[in-house]
């Protein structure tokens, strides 16, 4: 049985500037859509555990049955979107994230 090759997408990591890796595009896009639906636009944002729980409600069950691997994908997408300025980390503890303000320009 031949393996089918799925498309990949390059992701960044805000904690390691200049480092990129590639991940499955279908899984990434589904997780990205779910995370952006879950994250608020205004402070105080969501903690990591709140973000994961809120995101699960928006994940397609065929790709993430029972929320399987949601945590890994949530972190992958969060680090990538934070590196790209789409998501911002709020100052203070506990750590919280929200959508970045839309740029005007």
Give the arrangement of secondary structure elements:
Elements: E1 8-12, E2 20-24, H1 25-38, H2 48-56, H3 70-83, E3 87-90, E4 96-99
Care to give the gist of this entry?
The chain has 105 residues and is an alpha+beta fold.
Beginning-to-end CA distance, first to last residue:
51 Å
Biggest sheet architecture? 2 strands, antiparallel
Average pLDDT metric: 93
Tally the structural domains: 1
Output the CATH topology: Arc Repressor Mutant, subunit A
CATH uppermost class: Mainly Alpha
CATH A-level architecture = Orthogonal Bundle
Explain this structure.
- With 105 residues, this protein is of the alpha+beta class.
- The protein has one domain: Arc Repressor Mutant, subunit A.
- It is 35% helix and 17% strand.
- The protein contains three helices and four strands, in the order E-E-H-H-H-E-E.
- It has helices at 25-38, 48-56, 70-83; strands spanning 8-12, 20-24, 87-90, 96-99.
- It has a two-stranded antiparallel ribbon. Strands 3-4 form a two-stranded antiparallel sheet.
- Strand 3 and strand 4 form a beta hairpin.
- The protein is globular.
- The termini are far apart.
Structure keywords:
two-stranded antiparallel sheet; globular; single chain; 35% helix; 3 helices; 105 residues; alpha+beta; Arc Repressor Mutant, subunit A; two-stranded antiparallel ribbon
């Amino acid at each position: 049985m031949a393996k089918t090759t799925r498309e990949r997408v390059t992701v960044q990591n805000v904690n390691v500037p200049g480092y990129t890796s590639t991940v499955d595009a279908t899984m990434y896009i589904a997780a990205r859509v779910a995370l952006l639906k879950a994250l608020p636009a205004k402070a105080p944002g969501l903690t990591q555990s709140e973000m994961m729980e809120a995101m699960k409600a928006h994940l397609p069950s065929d790709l993430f049955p029972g929320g399987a691997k949601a945590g890994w994908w949530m972190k992958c997408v969060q680090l990538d979107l934070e590196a790209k300025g789409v998501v911002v980390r709020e100052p203070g503890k506990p750590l919280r994230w929200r959508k970045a303000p839309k740029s005007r320009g």
